[in-house]
Amino acid sequence: MDINIKFTIKVTKKDASIIDNTVTSFANRFLTSVPADIDRCIKHLEPIIEERRRNMENMNDMLSWLMAEAEGDETSTRNLTLKILTVNFAAIHTSTMTFYHALFYLAEHPEYMEPMREEIEEVVDREGWTHSAVKQMFKVDSFIKESQRLNTLGCLVMDRVACHPVTFPDGTYIPKGTHMSIPAHALHTDDAVYENPHTFDPFRFADRTKQQYAGHKGDMVSTSTEFVAFGHGRHACPGRFFAANELKLMLAHLVMTYDIKLQGNAGRPPNMWFMVHCIPNLKAEILLRKRVD
């Protein structure tokens, strides 16, 4: 865990290209500790990778998936380690920013804590802190999903490159090599899709009596042409199920343990934008107080 967290920070500060050993420069090896961190990670993963190679038919996890798809030099222990580090790099900052976006809404609207507390207490008393219990925390799930809707990690998602020329039914022609994206922010704030789309409605997706959210359609892991925070289609984020459980547990723990409000009772801190990327405000301050029953 320590290696993954520090790797994410160091790569962001330095040149992200060093995660690809084909472009690692001589200077980078001496100006950053990332190569040493990679070597440390190889020592940890090498015996696991060797064990996977001996027993691939009985394995079903991220590492085994990467190994099954690897070809040529991609099968080396170093390159498999780099892929694991890259996957973790992509997961850490995205989950962190998603949680902070939701945290700012909670600090701005502490009145939403009590409905979530009631739900969490009822479910945990019945199920304990189990996977089944987390699945039944519909208000917690909806709170995070609504935050995602208004604060997708970027205004453009699902970047694609056309491998072949395509003509759509309406006559739109996409030449080979065209770069395309889905306008997530515009889609998520479309009043033809969402009622009062610019209003934060924390339990918008929690009402399972509504047809569009019946069953598991309202869950944050459910992708659709109307909700693309995790992408959509066959290449939707495969880690969204783990991320959803992680985020819901974090929010549930915070709600049950602390009272929270914004410093100075100001409104929700404005987001920061870097090109097409939406980042939670880095200078915002919130106040936490241990909850007293």
TrEMBL record:
Source organism of this protein record: Sphagnurus paluster
Signal peptide limits: none
Family of this protein: Belongs to the cytochrome P450 family.
CDD domains: CYP503A1-like (cd11041)
Keyword Cell division applies: no
InterPro entries (UniProt xref): Cyt_P450 (IPR001128), Cyt_P450_CS (IPR017972), Cyt_P450_E_grp-I (IPR002401), Cyt_P450_sf (IPR036396)
PROSITE patterns: CYTOCHROME_P450 (PS00086)
This protein's name: Cytochrome P450
Lineage: Eukaryota, Fungi, Dikarya, Basidiomycota, Agaricomycotina
Keywords assigned: Heme, Iron, Metal-binding, Monooxygenase, Oxidoreductase
Molecular function GO labels: heme binding; iron ion binding; monooxygenase activity; oxidoreductase activity, acting on paired donors, with incorporation or reduction of molecular oxygen
Protein residues bound to heme: C237
Cofactors required: heme
Coiled coil: none
